[in-house]
Amino acid sequence: MRILLVDDDAPTRDSLAEYLTLLGHAVTPSAEAVSALNICRNHDFEMVLSDIQMPGRTGIELVRDIKGLSFTTAPDVVLYTGHADLELAIGALRAGAYDYLTKPINLEELAAVLDRVAEHQSLLRENEKLTDHFEEVVAEATSGVRAELSQLRQQFAQQAGLDNIGFFSEAMWEVVNQARLYHEDRDLPVLIQGETGVGKDIIAKLIHYGEDSSRSPRPFVDINCAALPANLFESELFGYEAGAFTGSATRGARGKIDLAKGGTLFLDEIGEIPVELQAKLLRVIENKSFYRVGGLTKVETDIRIIAATNLDLTERIEKGLFRSDLYYRLRVGSIIVPPLRERTDDIVPLALSFLRAFAAKRGKAFTDISPEAAAVLLEQPWSGNVRELKNAMEWISVMHDAQVLQPQHLAGFFGGMQKSSSVKERTSATRKADQSKKSRPTDQDIDAALVATGGNKTKAATRLGISIRMLYYRLAAREQNEG
Protein backbone atom coordinates (compact mmCIF):
# COMPACT_ATOMS: atom_id res chain seq x y z
CA MET A 1 0.00 0.00 0.00
CA ARG A 2 0.93 3.68 -0.28
CA ILE A 3 1.22 4.96 3.28
CA LEU A 4 1.67 8.51 4.56
CA LEU A 5 3.53 8.37 7.90
CA VAL A 6 3.17 11.45 10.15
CA ASP A 7 5.21 11.84 13.38
CA ASP A 8 7.21 14.75 14.78
CA ASP A 9 9.58 12.34 16.57
CA ALA A 10 12.29 11.46 14.02
CA PRO A 11 13.52 8.13 15.59
CA THR A 12 9.95 6.77 15.83
CA ARG A 13 9.15 7.97 12.31
CA ASP A 14 12.32 6.41 10.85
CA SER A 15 11.90 3.03 12.57
CA LEU A 16 8.25 2.75 11.51
CA ALA A 17 9.13 3.75 7.96
CA GLU A 18 11.84 1.05 7.85
CA TYR A 19 9.45 -1.62 9.16
CA LEU A 20 6.67 -0.70 6.73
CA THR A 21 9.08 -0.64 3.81
CA LEU A 22 10.30 -4.17 4.73
CA LEU A 23 6.66 -5.31 4.52
CA GLY A 24 6.53 -4.04 0.94
CA HIS A 25 4.69 -0.76 1.45
CA ALA A 26 5.56 2.57 -0.20
CA VAL A 27 6.09 5.06 2.64
CA THR A 28 6.05 8.87 2.48
CA PRO A 29 7.22 10.44 5.77
CA SER A 30 6.10 13.80 7.16
CA ALA A 31 7.09 15.57 10.40
CA GLU A 32 3.88 17.52 11.07
CA ALA A 33 0.15 17.67 10.22
CA VAL A 34 0.07 20.76 8.00
CA SER A 35 2.67 19.47 5.53
CA ALA A 36 1.02 16.03 5.65
CA LEU A 37 -2.28 17.59 4.60
CA ASN A 38 -0.61 19.33 1.66
CA ILE A 39 0.94 16.02 0.60
CA CYS A 40 -2.53 14.41 0.80
CA ARG A 41 -3.95 17.05 -1.51
CA ASN A 42 -1.51 16.15 -4.27
CA HIS A 43 -1.01 12.38 -3.85
CA ASP A 44 -3.17 9.32 -3.34
CA PHE A 45 -2.68 7.08 -0.32
CA GLU A 46 -4.48 4.00 0.92
CA MET A 47 -3.47 4.67 4.52
CA VAL A 48 -2.35 7.55 6.77
CA LEU A 49 -0.53 6.45 9.94
CA SER A 50 -0.15 9.36 12.36
CA ASP A 51 0.77 10.22 15.93
CA ILE A 52 -1.93 12.12 17.84
CA GLN A 53 0.16 14.38 20.04
CA MET A 54 2.22 16.70 17.78
CA PRO A 55 3.15 20.38 17.85
CA GLY A 56 0.72 22.57 15.92
CA ARG A 57 -2.21 20.53 14.68
CA THR A 58 -2.90 17.19 16.33
CA GLY A 59 -3.54 13.87 14.67
CA ILE A 60 -7.27 14.17 15.42
CA GLU A 61 -7.38 17.55 13.67
CA LEU A 62 -5.51 15.97 10.75
CA VAL A 63 -8.23 13.31 10.50
CA ARG A 64 -10.91 15.98 10.25
CA ASP A 65 -8.87 17.89 7.65
CA ILE A 66 -8.39 14.77 5.52
CA LYS A 67 -12.10 13.95 5.72
CA GLY A 68 -12.77 17.39 4.25
CA LEU A 69 -10.75 16.64 1.12
CA SER A 70 -12.15 15.09 -2.02
CA PHE A 71 -10.79 11.69 -3.06
CA THR A 72 -11.68 9.06 -5.57
CA THR A 73 -11.07 6.58 -2.76
CA ALA A 74 -10.43 8.16 0.66
CA PRO A 75 -7.45 6.83 2.69
CA ASP A 76 -7.98 5.08 6.02
CA VAL A 77 -6.39 7.03 8.90
CA VAL A 78 -4.88 5.06 11.81
CA LEU A 79 -3.78 7.08 14.85
CA TYR A 80 -1.40 6.14 17.65
CA THR A 81 -0.28 7.75 20.91
CA GLY A 82 1.78 7.01 23.99
CA HIS A 83 -1.17 7.86 26.23
CA ALA A 84 -3.53 4.97 26.94
CA ASP A 85 -6.48 7.30 27.23
CA LEU A 86 -9.91 5.82 26.45
CA GLU A 87 -11.51 9.24 25.86
CA LEU A 88 -8.72 10.14 23.44
CA ALA A 89 -9.31 6.90 21.54
CA ILE A 90 -13.05 7.56 21.35
CA GLY A 91 -12.38 11.12 20.15
CA ALA A 92 -10.12 9.79 17.38
CA LEU A 93 -12.73 7.32 16.18
CA ARG A 94 -15.49 9.93 16.30
CA ALA A 95 -13.33 12.24 14.20
CA GLY A 96 -13.26 9.54 11.52
CA ALA A 97 -10.13 7.50 12.28
CA TYR A 98 -10.24 3.93 10.98
CA ASP A 99 -8.35 2.47 13.98
CA TYR A 100 -6.27 3.35 17.05
CA LEU A 101 -2.96 2.05 18.41
CA THR A 102 -0.96 2.81 21.56
CA LYS A 103 2.81 3.25 21.93
CA PRO A 104 5.02 1.44 22.13
CA ILE A 105 3.43 -0.01 18.99
CA ASN A 106 3.07 -3.77 18.98
CA LEU A 107 4.29 -4.84 15.52
CA GLU A 108 1.88 -7.79 15.39
CA GLU A 109 -1.02 -5.46 16.11
CA LEU A 110 0.27 -3.05 13.48
CA ALA A 111 0.52 -5.87 10.93
CA ALA A 112 -3.07 -6.90 11.70
CA VAL A 113 -4.25 -3.31 11.25
CA LEU A 114 -2.38 -3.12 7.95
CA ASP A 115 -4.16 -6.26 6.73
CA ARG A 116 -7.58 -4.84 7.72
CA VAL A 117 -6.83 -1.55 6.00
CA ALA A 118 -5.68 -3.33 2.84
CA GLU A 119 -8.88 -5.39 2.78
CA HIS A 120 -11.03 -2.31 3.46
CA GLN A 121 -9.34 -0.36 0.67
CA SER A 122 -9.84 -3.27 -1.72
CA LEU A 123 -13.56 -3.27 -0.88
CA LEU A 124 -13.76 0.50 -1.36
CA ARG A 125 -12.16 0.29 -4.81
CA GLU A 126 -14.44 -2.56 -5.83
CA ASN A 127 -17.44 -0.58 -4.63
CA GLU A 128 -16.22 2.42 -6.60
CA LYS A 129 -16.03 0.31 -9.76
CA LEU A 130 -19.54 -1.04 -9.18
CA THR A 131 -20.84 2.47 -8.53
CA ASP A 132 -19.24 3.78 -11.73
CA HIS A 133 -20.67 0.87 -13.70
CA PHE A 134 -24.11 1.41 -12.17
CA GLU A 135 -24.01 5.12 -13.02
CA GLU A 136 -22.97 4.31 -16.60
CA VAL A 137 -25.84 1.84 -16.93
CA VAL A 138 -28.29 4.35 -15.44
CA ALA A 139 -26.95 7.13 -17.67
CA GLU A 140 -27.25 4.94 -20.75
CA ALA A 141 -30.76 3.85 -19.79
CA THR A 142 -31.75 7.42 -18.96
CA SER A 143 -30.38 8.65 -22.26
CA GLY A 144 -32.39 6.00 -24.08
CA VAL A 145 -35.56 6.85 -22.18
CA ARG A 146 -35.06 10.56 -22.80
CA ALA A 147 -34.52 9.97 -26.51
CA GLU A 148 -37.64 7.80 -26.68
CA LEU A 149 -39.64 10.36 -24.68
CA SER A 150 -38.42 13.15 -26.96
CA GLN A 151 -39.44 11.15 -30.02
CA LEU A 152 -42.88 10.40 -28.55
CA ARG A 153 -43.34 14.04 -27.57
CA GLN A 154 -42.44 15.18 -31.07
CA GLN A 155 -44.77 12.63 -32.66
CA PHE A 156 -47.60 13.64 -30.35
CA ALA A 157 -46.93 17.33 -30.89
CA GLN A 158 -47.05 16.94 -34.68
CA GLN A 159 -50.33 15.04 -34.49
CA ALA A 160 -51.87 17.61 -32.17
CA GLY A 161 -50.49 20.64 -34.02
CA LEU A 162 -48.25 21.68 -31.13
CA ASP A 163 -45.19 21.95 -33.34
CA ASN A 164 -46.55 25.41 -34.23
CA ILE A 165 -46.52 26.82 -30.68
CA GLY A 166 -43.60 25.10 -28.93
CA PHE A 167 -43.51 21.93 -26.87
CA PHE A 168 -39.96 21.77 -25.54
CA SER A 169 -40.36 23.58 -22.22
CA GLU A 170 -41.80 22.05 -19.07
CA ALA A 171 -44.18 25.00 -18.79
CA MET A 172 -45.81 24.11 -22.12
CA TRP A 173 -46.01 20.44 -21.27
CA GLU A 174 -47.97 21.39 -18.16
CA VAL A 175 -50.37 23.23 -20.47
CA VAL A 176 -50.53 20.22 -22.79
CA ASN A 177 -51.27 17.85 -19.92
CA GLN A 178 -54.07 20.14 -18.71
CA ALA A 179 -55.55 20.21 -22.21
CA ARG A 180 -55.40 16.42 -22.49
CA LEU A 181 -57.16 16.15 -19.14
CA TYR A 182 -59.94 18.52 -20.24
CA HIS A 183 -60.32 16.58 -23.50
CA GLU A 184 -61.69 13.65 -21.50
CA ASP A 185 -64.64 15.66 -20.11
CA ARG A 186 -66.78 17.24 -22.83
CA ASP A 187 -69.22 18.80 -20.36
CA LEU A 188 -66.51 21.01 -18.92
CA PRO A 189 -66.28 24.59 -20.27
CA VAL A 190 -62.69 25.84 -20.55
CA LEU A 191 -61.25 29.34 -20.47
CA ILE A 192 -57.83 29.74 -22.12
CA GLN A 193 -55.92 32.89 -21.20
CA GLY A 194 -52.72 34.26 -22.67
CA GLU A 195 -51.16 37.06 -24.66
CA THR A 196 -51.77 37.55 -28.35
CA GLY A 197 -49.84 35.06 -30.46
CA VAL A 198 -49.16 32.37 -27.84
CA GLY A 199 -51.31 29.77 -29.64
CA LYS A 200 -54.55 29.71 -27.66
CA ASP A 201 -56.42 28.43 -30.72
CA ILE A 202 -54.12 25.42 -31.00
CA ILE A 203 -54.63 24.57 -27.33
CA ALA A 204 -58.38 24.81 -27.93
CA LYS A 205 -58.08 22.31 -30.78
CA LEU A 206 -56.01 20.01 -28.59
CA ILE A 207 -58.77 20.06 -25.96
CA HIS A 208 -61.30 19.24 -28.67
CA TYR A 209 -59.44 16.70 -30.80
CA GLY A 210 -57.16 15.13 -28.24
CA GLU A 211 -53.93 13.60 -29.46
CA ASP A 212 -54.87 13.10 -33.12
CA SER A 213 -56.87 15.72 -34.97
CA SER A 214 -57.60 13.27 -37.81
CA ARG A 215 -59.66 10.93 -35.63
CA SER A 216 -62.44 13.16 -34.24
CA PRO A 217 -65.67 13.30 -36.27
CA ARG A 218 -67.10 15.99 -33.97
CA PRO A 219 -67.22 19.53 -35.43
CA PHE A 220 -64.93 22.28 -34.20
CA VAL A 221 -66.45 25.68 -34.95
CA ASP A 222 -64.72 28.92 -34.09
CA ILE A 223 -65.92 32.49 -33.94
CA ASN A 224 -63.80 35.61 -33.40
CA CYS A 225 -65.82 37.74 -31.03
CA ALA A 226 -63.69 40.80 -31.74
CA ALA A 227 -64.22 40.64 -35.51
CA LEU A 228 -68.03 40.95 -35.54
CA PRO A 229 -70.03 44.15 -35.08
CA ALA A 230 -72.36 44.01 -32.07
CA ASN A 231 -75.52 44.19 -34.26
CA LEU A 232 -74.49 41.05 -36.20
CA PHE A 233 -73.06 39.06 -33.35
CA GLU A 234 -76.33 37.61 -32.03
CA SER A 235 -77.52 36.31 -35.39
CA GLU A 236 -74.05 34.93 -36.17
CA LEU A 237 -73.95 33.06 -32.88
CA PHE A 238 -77.57 31.91 -32.48
CA GLY A 239 -78.83 31.99 -36.05
CA TYR A 240 -82.17 33.55 -37.00
CA GLU A 241 -85.63 32.64 -38.21
CA ALA A 242 -87.09 33.79 -41.53
CA GLY A 243 -88.14 37.42 -41.40
CA ALA A 244 -86.42 38.06 -38.09
CA PHE A 245 -85.09 41.37 -39.36
CA THR A 246 -84.90 43.42 -42.53
CA GLY A 247 -82.76 41.72 -45.13
CA SER A 248 -82.83 38.30 -43.42
CA ALA A 249 -83.02 35.20 -45.60
CA THR A 250 -86.50 33.87 -46.37
CA ARG A 251 -85.61 30.52 -44.80
CA GLY A 252 -83.61 31.84 -41.89
CA ALA A 253 -80.09 30.64 -41.13
CA ARG A 254 -78.30 28.42 -38.68
CA GLY A 255 -75.83 30.03 -36.30
CA LYS A 256 -72.46 28.88 -35.05
CA ILE A 257 -74.06 27.06 -32.12
CA ASP A 258 -76.11 24.97 -34.56
CA LEU A 259 -73.04 24.20 -36.65
CA ALA A 260 -71.11 23.08 -33.57
CA LYS A 261 -73.80 20.66 -32.39
CA GLY A 262 -72.22 17.56 -30.90
CA GLY A 263 -68.81 19.21 -30.92
CA THR A 264 -67.03 22.34 -29.75
CA LEU A 265 -67.77 26.04 -30.12
CA PHE A 266 -64.55 28.03 -29.72
CA LEU A 267 -65.18 31.64 -28.75
CA ASP A 268 -61.95 33.47 -29.46
CA GLU A 269 -61.53 36.88 -27.78
CA ILE A 270 -64.49 36.19 -25.47
CA GLY A 271 -63.79 39.45 -23.66
CA GLU A 272 -65.16 41.38 -26.65
CA ILE A 273 -68.62 39.75 -26.63
CA PRO A 274 -71.40 42.35 -26.14
CA VAL A 275 -72.57 42.51 -22.54
CA GLU A 276 -76.23 42.13 -23.53
CA LEU A 277 -75.50 38.75 -25.12
CA GLN A 278 -73.46 37.33 -22.26
CA ALA A 279 -76.56 36.23 -20.29
CA LYS A 280 -77.80 34.31 -23.33
CA LEU A 281 -74.44 32.59 -23.72
CA LEU A 282 -74.49 31.67 -20.03
CA ARG A 283 -77.89 30.00 -20.53
CA VAL A 284 -76.47 27.97 -23.42
CA ILE A 285 -73.68 26.69 -21.18
CA GLU A 286 -75.95 25.91 -18.23
CA ASN A 287 -79.16 24.75 -19.94
CA LYS A 288 -77.83 23.40 -23.26
CA SER A 289 -80.56 25.30 -25.10
CA PHE A 290 -81.14 28.63 -26.86
CA TYR A 291 -83.56 30.62 -29.03
CA ARG A 292 -82.71 31.79 -32.53
CA VAL A 293 -83.13 35.48 -33.31
CA GLY A 294 -86.83 36.04 -34.04
CA GLY A 295 -87.67 32.51 -32.89
CA LEU A 296 -90.07 31.27 -30.21
CA THR A 297 -89.02 27.63 -30.19
CA LYS A 298 -86.36 26.50 -27.77
CA VAL A 299 -83.54 24.69 -29.57
CA GLU A 300 -81.70 21.95 -27.65
CA THR A 301 -78.02 21.67 -28.27
CA ASP A 302 -75.10 19.51 -27.17
CA ILE A 303 -72.00 21.63 -27.49
CA ARG A 304 -68.90 22.27 -25.50
CA ILE A 305 -67.79 25.86 -24.99
CA ILE A 306 -64.09 26.73 -25.09
CA ALA A 307 -63.29 30.42 -24.76
CA ALA A 308 -60.05 32.33 -25.10
CA THR A 309 -58.94 35.85 -24.28
CA ASN A 310 -55.87 38.04 -24.07
CA LEU A 311 -57.69 40.50 -21.80
CA ASP A 312 -57.87 40.68 -18.02
CA LEU A 313 -61.49 39.65 -17.55
CA THR A 314 -61.50 40.54 -13.85
CA GLU A 315 -60.67 44.10 -14.84
CA ARG A 316 -63.50 44.11 -17.38
CA ILE A 317 -65.85 42.79 -14.70
CA GLU A 318 -64.94 45.76 -12.48
CA LYS A 319 -65.72 48.11 -15.39
CA GLY A 320 -69.08 46.44 -16.02
CA LEU A 321 -68.01 45.06 -19.41
CA PHE A 322 -68.12 41.37 -18.51
CA ARG A 323 -70.47 39.34 -16.36
CA SER A 324 -68.87 37.75 -13.32
CA ASP A 325 -71.27 34.75 -13.44
CA LEU A 326 -70.23 33.98 -17.03
CA TYR A 327 -66.57 34.38 -16.10
CA TYR A 328 -66.76 31.92 -13.19
CA ARG A 329 -68.80 29.46 -15.29
CA LEU A 330 -66.26 29.53 -18.11
CA ARG A 331 -63.20 29.12 -15.91
CA VAL A 332 -64.32 25.83 -14.37
CA GLY A 333 -61.58 24.53 -16.63
CA SER A 334 -58.76 27.09 -16.81
CA ILE A 335 -55.54 27.15 -18.81
CA ILE A 336 -53.00 29.95 -18.85
CA VAL A 337 -50.60 29.77 -21.80
CA PRO A 338 -47.30 31.44 -20.81
CA PRO A 339 -45.75 34.01 -23.15
CA LEU A 340 -42.76 32.97 -25.21
CA ARG A 341 -40.35 35.10 -23.19
CA GLU A 342 -41.17 33.01 -20.10
CA ARG A 343 -40.43 29.70 -21.82
CA THR A 344 -37.11 30.32 -23.50
CA ASP A 345 -36.53 26.59 -24.01
CA ASP A 346 -39.08 26.82 -26.84
CA ILE A 347 -37.58 29.78 -28.71
CA VAL A 348 -34.64 28.28 -30.62
CA PRO A 349 -36.28 24.89 -31.43
CA LEU A 350 -39.40 26.71 -32.64
CA ALA A 351 -37.35 29.12 -34.72
CA LEU A 352 -35.46 26.22 -36.29
CA SER A 353 -38.69 24.36 -37.04
CA PHE A 354 -40.23 27.43 -38.70
CA LEU A 355 -37.03 28.27 -40.56
CA ARG A 356 -36.64 24.77 -42.02
CA ALA A 357 -40.30 24.68 -43.07
CA PHE A 358 -40.15 28.07 -44.82
CA ALA A 359 -36.76 27.23 -46.36
CA ALA A 360 -38.14 24.01 -47.81
CA LYS A 361 -41.18 25.86 -49.14
CA ARG A 362 -39.03 28.46 -50.90
CA GLY A 363 -36.14 26.22 -51.93
CA LYS A 364 -33.67 27.85 -49.54
CA ALA A 365 -30.74 26.09 -47.85
CA PHE A 366 -31.34 26.91 -44.15
CA THR A 367 -30.90 23.86 -41.92
CA ASP A 368 -29.43 25.23 -38.68
CA ILE A 369 -29.05 28.24 -36.36
CA SER A 370 -25.64 29.41 -35.16
CA PRO A 371 -25.03 29.86 -31.40
CA GLU A 372 -24.56 33.59 -31.99
CA ALA A 373 -27.91 33.88 -33.79
CA ALA A 374 -29.53 31.80 -31.05
CA ALA A 375 -28.22 34.28 -28.48
CA VAL A 376 -29.84 37.13 -30.43
CA LEU A 377 -33.16 35.26 -30.59
CA LEU A 378 -33.09 34.58 -26.86
CA GLU A 379 -32.57 38.26 -26.08
CA GLN A 380 -35.70 39.43 -27.92
CA PRO A 381 -38.82 40.31 -25.88
CA TRP A 382 -41.11 38.59 -28.42
CA SER A 383 -44.09 40.74 -27.53
CA GLY A 384 -45.92 39.10 -30.43
CA ASN A 385 -44.97 35.67 -29.06
CA VAL A 386 -44.95 32.66 -31.40
CA ARG A 387 -46.67 34.56 -34.18
CA GLU A 388 -43.88 37.14 -34.21
CA LEU A 389 -41.19 34.45 -34.15
CA LYS A 390 -42.85 32.66 -37.07
CA ASN A 391 -43.07 35.91 -39.03
CA ALA A 392 -39.38 36.56 -38.37
CA MET A 393 -38.36 33.17 -39.76
CA GLU A 394 -40.59 33.62 -42.81
CA TRP A 395 -39.07 37.05 -43.48
CA ILE A 396 -35.57 35.57 -43.27
CA SER A 397 -36.51 32.79 -45.70
CA VAL A 398 -37.63 35.46 -48.16
CA MET A 399 -34.67 37.83 -47.75
CA HIS A 400 -31.72 35.47 -47.23
CA ASP A 401 -30.32 32.12 -48.27
CA ALA A 402 -27.64 30.28 -46.32
CA GLN A 403 -27.19 26.94 -44.62
CA VAL A 404 -26.82 28.41 -41.11
CA LEU A 405 -28.76 31.36 -39.73
CA GLN A 406 -26.36 34.09 -38.57
CA PRO A 407 -26.89 37.32 -36.59
CA GLN A 408 -26.56 39.45 -39.72
CA HIS A 409 -29.63 37.72 -41.17
CA LEU A 410 -31.66 38.89 -38.18
CA ALA A 411 -30.43 42.49 -38.15
CA GLY A 412 -32.72 43.63 -40.96
CA PHE A 413 -35.84 42.15 -39.40
CA PHE A 414 -35.36 43.66 -35.96
CA GLY A 415 -34.15 46.91 -37.49
CA GLY A 416 -37.31 47.04 -39.59
CA MET A 417 -39.44 46.51 -36.52
CA GLN A 418 -37.74 49.42 -34.84
CA LYS A 419 -38.43 51.64 -37.86
CA SER A 420 -42.13 50.69 -37.88
CA SER A 421 -42.67 51.64 -34.22
CA SER A 422 -44.93 54.56 -33.31
CA VAL A 423 -43.85 58.18 -33.61
CA LYS A 424 -43.88 58.45 -29.83
CA GLU A 425 -41.59 55.47 -29.47
CA ARG A 426 -39.28 56.82 -32.17
CA THR A 427 -39.12 60.19 -30.47
CA SER A 428 -38.37 58.54 -27.15
CA ALA A 429 -35.73 56.34 -28.73
CA THR A 430 -34.13 59.34 -30.44
CA ARG A 431 -34.04 61.24 -27.16
CA LYS A 432 -32.39 58.31 -25.41
CA ALA A 433 -29.93 57.92 -28.26
CA ASP A 434 -29.01 61.60 -28.02
CA GLN A 435 -28.52 61.26 -24.28
CA SER A 436 -26.23 58.27 -24.65
CA LYS A 437 -24.51 59.32 -27.87
CA LYS A 438 -21.29 60.21 -26.13
CA SER A 439 -21.04 56.77 -24.52
CA ARG A 440 -21.97 54.81 -27.65
CA PRO A 441 -18.96 52.69 -28.67
CA THR A 442 -17.35 53.44 -32.03
CA ASP A 443 -16.23 50.80 -34.53
CA GLN A 444 -12.71 51.27 -33.20
CA ASP A 445 -13.96 50.64 -29.65
CA ILE A 446 -15.64 47.42 -30.80
CA ASP A 447 -12.52 46.22 -32.62
CA ALA A 448 -10.36 46.96 -29.56
CA ALA A 449 -12.77 45.09 -27.25
CA LEU A 450 -12.79 42.05 -29.54
CA VAL A 451 -9.00 42.01 -29.65
CA ALA A 452 -8.76 42.39 -25.86
CA THR A 453 -11.17 39.48 -25.28
CA GLY A 454 -9.66 37.21 -27.89
CA GLY A 455 -12.75 37.47 -30.09
CA ASN A 456 -15.20 36.48 -27.33
CA LYS A 457 -18.27 38.52 -28.27
CA THR A 458 -20.07 38.04 -24.94
CA LYS A 459 -17.07 39.39 -23.01
CA ALA A 460 -16.57 42.14 -25.56
CA ALA A 461 -20.19 43.29 -25.18
CA THR A 462 -19.77 43.40 -21.39
CA ARG A 463 -16.55 45.36 -21.78
CA LEU A 464 -18.30 47.85 -24.06
CA GLY A 465 -21.32 48.18 -21.80
CA ILE A 466 -23.81 47.07 -24.47
CA SER A 467 -25.97 43.97 -24.93
CA ILE A 468 -24.75 41.00 -26.95
CA ARG A 469 -27.68 41.63 -29.32
CA MET A 470 -26.52 45.19 -29.94
CA LEU A 471 -22.99 44.00 -30.60
CA TYR A 472 -24.17 41.48 -33.18
CA TYR A 473 -26.37 44.13 -34.73
CA ARG A 474 -23.47 46.60 -34.99
CA LEU A 475 -21.20 43.96 -36.52
CA ALA A 476 -23.88 42.84 -38.99
CA ALA A 477 -24.68 46.42 -39.99
CA ARG A 478 -21.01 47.17 -40.54
CA GLU A 479 -20.60 44.02 -42.63
CA GLN A 480 -23.55 45.01 -44.81
CA ASN A 481 -22.17 48.55 -45.27
CA GLU A 482 -18.75 47.21 -46.19
CA GLY A 483 -20.31 44.69 -48.58
UniProtKB/TrEMBL annotation:
Q: Kindly list the positions at which 4-aspartylphosphate occurs in this protein.
A: 51
Which stretches make up the Sigma-54 factor interaction domain? 169-398
Q: Name one GO biological process term.
A: regulation of DNA-templated transcription
Q: Name one Pfam family in it.
A: HTH_8
Return the annotated region ranges for Disordered. Answer: 421-445
GO function term, MF aspect, one? sequence-specific DNA binding
| Record key words, sorted | ATP-binding, Nucleotide-binding, Phosphoprotein, Transcription, Transcription regulation
Q: Which InterPro entries match?
A: AAA+_ATPase, AAA_lid_NorR, CheY-like_superfamily, Homeodomain-like_sf, HTH_Fis, P-loop_NTPase, Sig_transdc_resp-reg_receiver, Sigma_54_int
Which intervals carry biased composition (Basic and acidic residues)?
Answer: 422-443
Q: Which residues form the Response regulatory domain?
A: 2-118
Q: Is Nucleotide-binding among the key words of this record?
A: yes
Tell me what this protein is called: Two component, sigma54 specific, transcriptional regulator, Fis family
Q: Which organism is it from?
A: Maridesulfovibrio salexigens (strain ATCC 14822 / DSM 2638 / NCIMB 8403 / VKM B-1763) (Desulfovibrio salexigens)
